[in-house]
Amino acid sequence: DQKEQVTPRILAGGQHVVQLDGEGTYQCSLTGLIFEVTGAIKITYCLLSWSKYASLVKKPWIVGGPLFDVCCDGAAALTSIQFPHSLCLSG
User: Fold this and answer.
1) pLDDT for 45-55, tens place per residue?
2) Is residue 89 domain-resident?
3) Residue 91 domain flag
4) Is 52 helix (H, G, I), strand (E, B) or coil?
5) Which PROSITE patterns match (predicted)?
6) What's the half-sphere exposure (Cβ side, CA atoms, 13 Å) at 73?
């Protein structure tokens, strides 16, 4: 399975933006997110803090892994997102 590496543009507030120009499978070089798309699409995403949402997670579930907010223009072209199970924030 071939994934094209893409490096997002970083906006204020820690938002990431990628403009994908055509069909394929793309992997963000910074977060590990994998996007499968059928056509051109602009995807904006950011890492959120679990501190605001942890109370929504009820037992037996536990908080585990990064939490992302993902938005896109042309959602019909986005067929799947694969989220990483972990994310190293220490560089």
Assistant:
1) 999 988 888 88
2) no
3) no
4) helix
5) FIIND
6) 9
8 assigned to some structural domain: yes
Residue written as tokens 């997110």?
33
> What strand order describes the sheet that includes 67-73?
9-10, 16-20, 41-48, 67-73
Q: Domain range spanning residue 61? A: 4-82
Pull the structure tokens for residue 80: 């799947």
Q: What is the pLDDT of residues 1-35, one digit of tens each?
A: 689 999 999 998 899 999 999 999 999 999 999 99
Q: Give phi and psi for 51, each to the nearest 5.
A: -55, -35
Classify residue 55: in a domain, yes or no.
Answer: yes
d(CA 58, CA 19): 36
Does the pLDDT of residue 89 top 80, yes or no?
no
Q: Dmax of the chain from CA atoms?
A: 42
For the entire predicted model, the pTM comes to 0.83
